[in-house]
Amino acid sequence: MLGARPLILPPRHYVYPREAEEVERGALEVLVRPADAQPFLATCALGFHDAAVPTGLWSAPNPDELCAVSGGYAYIIDTTRPERFTMIEYRPVLRVVPAVADGLLLFVGHHAILAYGAQGEAWRTTKLTDEGVTVTGIEGSVLRGLGWSMMTDKETPFALDLRTGRLLTNHPAA
Question: Do 167 and 129 reside in the same domain of the chain?
Answer without folding.
Answer: yes
